[in-house]
Amino acid sequence: MAIFPMHTDPLFYRLFQERPALAFDLAGLAVPEAADYRMRAIEVKQTAFRLDGVLLPPPGRADAPLIFTEAQFQGRPTFYARWLASIFLYLYRHRVTRPWQAVVVFPHRQADAGILTPYEGLLQCGLLRRVYLDDLLDVAGLSFDARLARLVILEATRAATEARALVSAPDPAADPLEVLDLVETILVYKFPQLSREEIRAMLQLPETNLKKTRFYQEVFGEGRQEGRQEGRQEGRQEGQEREVSLVLRQLQRRIGVVSKAQQARIAALPIEQVEALGETLLDFTDAADLAAWLAAN
Predict the structure, then answer these.
(1) Parallel, antiparallel, or unpaired for β 100-106 and 128-132?
(2) Does residue 174 fall inside a structural domain?
């Protein structure tokens, strides 16, 4: 079975945020004006629930459905119970009167490990839609957005070919630089061991193109890059830095402020423990959970 990158949820959050039509494409929904939808992460107050993917329809469109999205790459028996409880609590708290759909993306059926029996009625009536990316592996004529999502699970050789194709013939309705930024982000998540130079070579693009992307500017600042040796060692070091940065951002979204002492402690952890924290923090509800985890590790 293919190995998928850890912490894929933020990657799909970014994809849904910048390409909201992706949710409709994957779920087989024909919703007009998908580009007018806005992605939000919304915490349901007075509970420990948080919905990271809520696509809000454009104002004045009472007929347009509210879309709840989730990417689930780690099998969790409690996934459906927690996610659907969050959705129904949101519907209650916000007095929602419009239609809604829930769309969850899995890499393959083995990752769909949640207990579904109490919620099969939602599946049967179409309110809950499941998407398995490996079903798209050999599908021809996919939309541009669906090809972006499929890129996450392609094996290395095919991923490189598809990434070059996406960059060289981007969606005509999109900014080519934004497309390049998304493709580069997917490749860095997918191949954290690769250096910036190796990613550039994979895309077969001049250095100047990558320097213009938001991802390059955020992660590969020029000042940090000067004087560093290229190669695998740099790739591993940058991979750890990106992993730590990602985990810290997830923690801040999940529990709020992370102290400087805790940030330094996390940065000093081996990469294996950073990855373990990245998976465990999905179950954190407050700062005490992080303190307890650090004390135990």
Answers:
(1) parallel
(2) no
